[in-house]
Write a sequence for this structure.
């Protein structure tokens, strides 16, 4: 038979016994008799004299019968009035007496009602404490079982029947006058009232067994036995077997009468067992009984009525029948302390402390001094007694807790409170089944009081007879607060199924308060280390808010207003899924609120809604900050105060300073349930060492104990004692293997010291029930690899290496990471949908936050879901080379770094060109959208090597600083690109780096941790909560995300990320057999003149290739007759002149063109054939002479007024060759000022250069270029709109011509500067002659 542990709750308050006195009022007193009042007669004398005079007058003057009659009537009236006046005082006295009698009888009626109510209240109170025998079974099945403790005054006080007892309401008779002076009827009524209500009939008549050494039973034998059964029934129902025991001293014949006692736990030996179980306390001989009860029993002193029983010295009631007790036995005579003999032997030995109960005719009587008290005797039949005993048979106390004298100074483990004998093997299901009824839920013992009573914490709300639903625990450092929380959690987990209770355990400081408890099936979340990661506080708030909303929606959908009604319907058979109650424990909540004051809103929300949703809140902290908790303080029903830092904190928690005065030992505290109840307790522990598992000797004893599985169960001993068998088994085992036993004991000691009780319990409970619904997913701490987001990555013969299981292949929808949605209690993929209006991406974050990594993840994810024909990447890597690792992708057309200026410019030009070509294609074909273009291209209708093109700019600020002219061009691409399949992906340090126009175009915004949360476009407060972890950021909705790592090996380590990315890129490239993305064409570093087209027309000279379209760049001397060439040393100035010379000599003959050459460096003398040279100068004077001669010669060609427009176009008014003035190193000739310029004679002719056939090409160094532009010839040439070739020169020279900026260029590379634009070209290389 399995046992049932009884949790002895504190004794409940029964109906109150009426108290007080009522002093009755005095009855009315008779009044003095009234005498004759002749004074009033005198008032009628004048009337009588007047009547006599009138009678005389009528009789003398007119003597007729009528006159006599009238006089007579007047006389009669006068006489009547006189007599009535005389009798009136007596009538008033009688009327007053009747009124007083009526009022007094009404007063007695009111007091009679009061007395009857008091009598009824007294009857309820006495029957509550002394229930009728046939009602004892209801107490045995209810919470009042074993409610009496040794400290109670009525311990071992039981009723023997019902009889008349004095009324609790004391009626005090009044002090009256002599009876003969009282109103008779009132006096009689008062006497009858007093006699009737000074006693109450049919009340329980109790006797205090502790006052007597024995109770002798006389009279009717069967009635006496029935009375004894009733008395024993009261004892065993109201008193615990740890504090009261029943022993039987009877012969074999009487054993049948008392055989039912074998079922009682009070009759079981605390230690010894036989084959049938615990040994029954029954013997046929007094000495044998003494031996059975033990040496401690024999050593008890003589009877002491003031001695208080305890768990170490329980009250022993000995039932004796059918045996002779020797006169010298200690059970007789002076008796024994805390021992009572119920003597049914009939010996009637008597004694000074012996009470004799005589039963006769249904009555029981006993002497009380000189009086005999009689009562209607109680009786309990044998069948009823056995039924009651069988009801109590499985009941047991927890044992260990109750076996100490000073509970507040003793440490208890939690298993003792729960009645768990072996934490490794106890039946979890049996423990959980006891809490299935709603009334038994959420109640758990946490400690014991000073009287040894269990202190239970009932988390249910007060409407369900609980203490909750919310509470507070405050305790200073070392007070045992964390241990109390662990005890509470483990106690609830051990007694409640995970379908009944789930828990959220939060520790702000991140200590070990809830260590190992995440393995419990009840745990929905264990949240620790919040102090170091404050962003998790907001996440926890969202998670709990989401859980409350989920519960609200679930209850609303089911049609129930509260969890109580929901569970009631479910237990009643409704088809509903379990909805466990949720206990939220927040340790160190004061520090939590100090760091996150807004978190109090969650506490207030739980306080308001938790009762109906089944959400219970328990706040714990070392200190109580009333200023922060005042809003939620009204919702905290119960409060636990362990030792506090100050008396003020104690008063704040429990209203008194007692908690400050508690001992320093951990676990001492007070439980405040309401405004009146304050319970001192000692908390149990759960972190101590676990008991050692059974040794082989103990196991052998257990096996010996069950050797006979079925045996007779009677009152007497059955077979040998288990202690004897255990000793024999141990002796045998020790003889065989002493050394082995020592080693095993050492191992057990090691296990005991190495494994805590908490770990043992957690291990026993782990996996015992369905796992709790997780409301706290683990934080995003470890970045997933890309293959975790794109499962099924396998080679495909058509698509290459691709994610075959991805549903959106080729759809521009790719995962980039994980989004944490704590409010919905889920995680989802961070998917970038680039197929529509969100096709542009902006990634912003502080340095080292993972921007480049996220861009690589984007590229790799797109590469695994699209072929190189479907998408292409063109990257500007200004972030330190992070994108170089993906350069091997067949999808990547180009990656340009900050130092590769040409490639950067060419990349943007390439994208612009793609955009322009597609715009023309859309117009020409009448296409409406990019989807139509993709379909037409896939069907072969369009031959375009580019699909969706991605321009990736990693480091937008660098682009703005060093490529300012490209910013607007990229923004133009972004503005028009989505319509034509061109996507822009940019990254920056802050959003303010991006102009508003560009930010508005970025449909997909990924915000990593910012250096200044004020810059956030999601929200300043939420941005401040982004942790310092690469890859962590926010999406537009405000949810946190964690970017994936661009690797395909399943690892989350970023130490070798570059190598892993390159490996993934190489694998993708290996399995792609088609064409790769078209590259970016660049200007060659050396362009041979043979690759340029020959001159055309009137000396249309090809200078080289332009950067934008890689097409020839022409200089037409007919349109712009002059050319300026600037540059630093060894940059290509002389080569540019050599290129012009070559064009002249190849286009004209010596008779068609002549060249004036100024070459102080002698670098061109061999390149200009002598036939073409009309002059050669190496110094300033020579150049001045040549300029003067040229001015004279060419000046003759200046058209006059007679030249017609047609002639001007044909230039036929003069004859002669074209004159080319080529000057190299002009800085060596001129002064750099407007004074003394060797070219001054030709300045006025520069404007007529085309008309007169004069062309000037000047090359000079950029040293002092700003000053050099003051030269009249140079200034005039630029003013006339002639272009300039600007080769490389240092930044210190600044801008000196047009909008061109100083640039460092390779030799031969130049900026072609006009008044309208600046174009980069690569000039043709002419080898020197």
């Amino acid at each position: 038979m399995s046992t049932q542990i009884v949790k002895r709750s504190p004794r409940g308050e029964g109906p109150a016994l009426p108290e007080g006195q009522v002093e009755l009022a005095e009855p009315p007193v008779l009044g003095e008799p009234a005498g004759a009042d002749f004074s009033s007669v005198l008032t009628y004398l004048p009337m009588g004299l007047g009547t006599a005079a009138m009678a005389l007058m009528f009789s003398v003057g007119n003597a007729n019968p009528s006159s006599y009659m009238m006089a007579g009537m007047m006389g009669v009236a006068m006489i009547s009035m006189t007599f009535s006046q005389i009798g009136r005082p007596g009538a008033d006295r009688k009327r007053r007496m009747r009124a007083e009698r009526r009022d007094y009888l009404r007063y007695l009626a009111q007091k009679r009602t009061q007395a009857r109510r008091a009598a009824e209240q007294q009857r309820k109170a006495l029957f509550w404490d002394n229930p009728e025998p046939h009602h004892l079974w209801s107490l045995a099945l209810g919470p009042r079982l074993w409610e009496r403790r040794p400290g109670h005054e009525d311990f071992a006080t039981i009723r023997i029947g019902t009889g008349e007892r004095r009324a609790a309401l004391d009626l005090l008779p009044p002090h009256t006058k002599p009876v003969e002076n009282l109103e008779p009827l009132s006096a009689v009524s008062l006497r009858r009232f007093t006699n009737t209500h000074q006693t109450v009939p049919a009340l329980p008549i109790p006797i205090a067994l502790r006052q007597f050494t024995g109770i002798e039973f006389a009279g009717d034998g069967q009635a006496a036995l029935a009375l004894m059964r009733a008395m024993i029934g009261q004892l065993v129902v109201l008193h615990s077997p740890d504090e009261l025991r029943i022993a039987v001293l009877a012969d074999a014949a009487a054993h049948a009468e008392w055989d039912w006692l074998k079922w009682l736990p009070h009759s079981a030996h605390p230690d010894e067992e036989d084959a049938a179980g615990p040994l029954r306390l029954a013997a046929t001989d007094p000495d044998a009984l003494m031996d059975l009860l033990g040496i401690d029993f024999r050593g008890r002193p003589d009877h002491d009525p003031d001695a208080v029983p305890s768990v170490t010295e329980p009250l022993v009631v000995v039932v004796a029948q059918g045996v002779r007790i020797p006169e010298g036995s200690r059970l007789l005579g002076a008796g024994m302390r805390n021992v009572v003999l119920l003597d049914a032997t009939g010996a009637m030995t008597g004694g000074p402390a012996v009470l004799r109960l005589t039963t006769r005719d249904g009555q029981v009587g006993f002497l009380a001094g000189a009086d005999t008290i009689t009562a209607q005797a109680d009786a309990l039949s044998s069948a009823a007694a056995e039924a009651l005993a069988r009801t109590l048979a499985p009941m047991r106390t927890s044992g260990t807790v109750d076996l100490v004298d000073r509970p507040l100074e003793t440490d208890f483990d939690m298993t003792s409170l729960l009645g768990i004998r072996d934490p490794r093997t106890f039946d979890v299901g049996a423990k959980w089944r006891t809490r299935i009824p709603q009334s038994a839920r959420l109640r758990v013992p946490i400690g014991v009081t000073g009287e040894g009573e269990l202190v239970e914490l009932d988390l249910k709300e007060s409407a369900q007879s609980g203490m909750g639903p919310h509470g507070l625990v405050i305790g200073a450092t070392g007070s045992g607060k964390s241990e109390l929380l662990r005890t509470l959690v483990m106690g609830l987990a051990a007694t409640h199924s995970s379908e009944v209770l789930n828990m959220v355990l939060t520790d702000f400081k991140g200590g070990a308060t809830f260590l190992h408890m995440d393995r419990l099936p009840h745990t929905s979340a264990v949240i620790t280390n919040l102090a170091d990661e404050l962003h998790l506080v907001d996440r926890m708030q969202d998670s709990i808010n989401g859980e409350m909303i989920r519960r609200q929606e679930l209850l609303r959908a089911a049609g129930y207003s509260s969890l109580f009604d929901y569970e009631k319907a479910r237990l009643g058979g409704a088809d509903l899924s379990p909805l466990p109650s949720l206990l939220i424990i927040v340790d160190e909540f004061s520090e939590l609120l100090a760091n996150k004051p807004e978190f109090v809103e969650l506490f207030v929300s739980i306080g308001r809604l938790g009762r109906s949703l089944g959400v219970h809140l328990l706040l714990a902290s070392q200190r109580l900050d009333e200023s922060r908790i005042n809003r939620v303080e009204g919702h905290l029903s119960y409060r636990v105060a362990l030792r506090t830092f100050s008396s003020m904190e104690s008063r704040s928690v429990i209203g008194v300073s007692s908690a400050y005065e508690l001992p320093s030992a951990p676990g001492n505290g007070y439980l405040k349930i309401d405004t009146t109840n304050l319970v001192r307790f000692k908390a149990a522990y759960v972190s101590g060492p676990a008991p050692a598992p059974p040794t082989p000797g103990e196991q052998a004893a257990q096996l010996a104990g069950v050797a006979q599985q079925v045996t007779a169960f009677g009152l007497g001993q059955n077979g040998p004692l288990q202690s004897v068998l255990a000793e024999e088994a141990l002796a045998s085992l020790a003889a065989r293997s002493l050394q082995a036993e020592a080693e095993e004991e050492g191992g057990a000691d090691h296990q005991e010291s190495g494994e805590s009780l908490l770990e043992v319990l957690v291990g026993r409970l782990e996996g015992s029930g369905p796992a709790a619904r997780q409301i706290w997913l683990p934080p995003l701490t470890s970045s997933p690899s890309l293959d975790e987001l794109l499962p099924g990555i396998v080679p495909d013969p058509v698509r290459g290496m691709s994610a075959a299981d991805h549903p959106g292949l080729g759809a521009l929808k790719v995962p980039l990471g994980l989004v944490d949605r704590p409010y919905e209690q889920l995680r989802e993929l961070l998917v970038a949908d680039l197929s529509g209006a969100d096709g542009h991406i902006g990634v912003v974050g502080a340095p080292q936050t993972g921007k480049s990594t996220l861009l690589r993840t984007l590229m790799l994810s797109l590469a695994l879901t699209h072929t190189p024909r479907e998408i292409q990447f063109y990257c500007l890597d200004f972030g330190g080379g992070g994108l170089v690792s993906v350069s091997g992708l067949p999808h990547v057309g180009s990656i340009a770094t900050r130092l590769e200026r040409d490639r950067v410019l060419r990349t943007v030009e390439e994208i612009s060109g793609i955009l322009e070509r597609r715009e023309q294609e859309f117009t020409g074909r009448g296409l409406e959208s990019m989807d139509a273009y993709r379909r037409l291209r896939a069907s072969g209708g369009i031959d375009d090597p580019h699909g969706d093109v991605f321009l990736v700019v990693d480091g937008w600020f660098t682009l703005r600083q060093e490529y300012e002219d490209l910013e607007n061009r990229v923004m133009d691409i972004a503005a028009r690109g989505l319509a034509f399949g061109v996507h822009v992906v940019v990254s920056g340090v802050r959003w303010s780096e991006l102009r508003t126009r560009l930010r508005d175009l970025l449909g997909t915004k990924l915000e990593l941790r910012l250096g200044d949360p004020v810059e956030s476009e999601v929200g300043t407060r939420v941005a401040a909560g982004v942790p310092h972890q690469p890859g962590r950021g926010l999406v537009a909705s405000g949810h946190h995300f964690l970017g994936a790592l661009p690797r395909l090996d399943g690892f989350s380590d970023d130490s070798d990320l570059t190598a892993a990315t390159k490996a993934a890129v190489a694998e993708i490239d290996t399995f792609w057999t088609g064409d790769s993305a078209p590259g970016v064409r660049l200007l060659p570093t050396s362009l041979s003149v043979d690759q340029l087209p020959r001159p055309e027309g009137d000396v249309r000279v090809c200078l080289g290739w332009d950067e934008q379209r890689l097409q020839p760049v022409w200089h037409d001397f007919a349109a712009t007759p002059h050319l300026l060439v600037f540059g630093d040393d060894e940059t290509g100035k002389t080569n540019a002149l050599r290129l012009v010379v070559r064009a002249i000599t190849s286009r004209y003959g010596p008779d068609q063109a002549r060249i004036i050459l100024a070459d102080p460096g002698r670098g061109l003398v061999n390149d200009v054939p002598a036939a073409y040279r009309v002059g050669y100068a190496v110094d300033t004077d020579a150049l001045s002479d040549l300029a003067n001669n040229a001015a004279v010669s060419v000046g003759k060609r200046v058209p006059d007024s007679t030249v017609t427009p047609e002639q001007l176009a044909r230039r036929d008014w003069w004859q002669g060759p074209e004159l080319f003035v080529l000057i190299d190193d002009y800085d060596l000739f001129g002064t750099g000022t407007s004074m003394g310029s060797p070219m001054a004679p030709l300045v006025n002719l520069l404007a007529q250069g085309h008309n007169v056939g004069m062309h000037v090409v000047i090359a000079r160094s950029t040293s002092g270029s700003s000053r050099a532009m003051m030269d009249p010839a140079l200034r005039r040439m630029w003013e006339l709109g002639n272009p300039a070739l600007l080769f490389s020169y240092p930044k210190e020279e600044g801008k000196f011509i047009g909008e061109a900026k100083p640039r460092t260029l390779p030799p031969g590379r130049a900026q072609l500067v006009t008044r309208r634009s600046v174009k980069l070209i690569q000039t043709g290389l002419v080898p020197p002659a």
